[in-house]
Specification:
alpha/beta; seven-stranded mixed sheet; 10 helices; 9 strands
Length: about 200
């Protein structure tokens, strides 16, 4: 399984790097997680520069794509040449977006007919794109999911793992990373968000 975490200039470190850490906890042959960027290097909203592990063509062929957020997302959606490279297909890919990443999916027409979750700053922009924004941290419909709030990265990652490797694998990953003394609570909350959206039988 190949998973791309789209990471643009001005990216939010929590979105991209929490997902990267969680998803890389899955130790399966062929399981590959990549920070996927439009250029060889990108700089975060707090001045942290990272090197791309892959470029945008990787995302188009990946099994799953997570679109992270950042302070320059509105510049991304106004860049026609860049947006043209984001040619995703929910019929064959799992697609997730966090916070302002939902605006990218909305502008690509990938949220048509679906509500979305996003952060409070991005909410009016997503609504302007014709999308209903929910007051909750996570929502999924078919092969598309969105999450709102930096720490909701755990829900997107758990959703991807549950869809690709099964719910027990997702539980194990969340349990590993959850704070000591709160592990069962964290697992129950994360899996509850996922199972409330998709019947657990369809996740296996």
């Amino acid at each position: 399984m190949r998973i791309a975490i789209l990471t643009f200039d001005g990216f939010n470190e929590l979105d991209s790097l929490i997902a990267l850490g969680l998803l890389n906890r899955v130790k399966k042959p062929g399981w590959e997680v990549s920070l996927c960027c439009p250029t060889a290097r990108v700089c975060s909203m707090n001045g942290v520069t990272v090197e791309a592990q892959s470029l945008l063509p990787y995302a188009r062929s990946a099994d799953a794509v997570l679109v992270g957020s950042g302070m320059k997302t509105r510049e991304v959606v106004q860049d026609a040449a860049l947006m043209a490279q984001l040619d995703f297909d929910p019929a064959r890919q799992l697609l997730g977006a966090q916070c302002s990443g939902a605006l990218i999916l909305a502008r690509l027409g990938l949220l048509d007919g679906l509500p979305a979750c996003t952060d409070l700053t991005t909410k009016p922009w997503v609504q302007e794109a014709g999308i209903t924004v929910l007051n909750q941290p996570f929502v999924a419909g078919g092969n598309v999911a969105t999450a709102g709030g930096c720490l909701s990265a755990q829900y997107l990652a758990a959703w991807l793992i549950a869809r690709l490797e099964g719910p027990e694998a997702a539980r194990e990953v969340i349990h590993y990373f959850a704070p000591v003394g709160e592990k069962e609570e964290y697992v129950a909350r994360a899996m509850g968000h996922i199972e409330n959206q998709v019947p657990i039988a369809s996740l296996a």
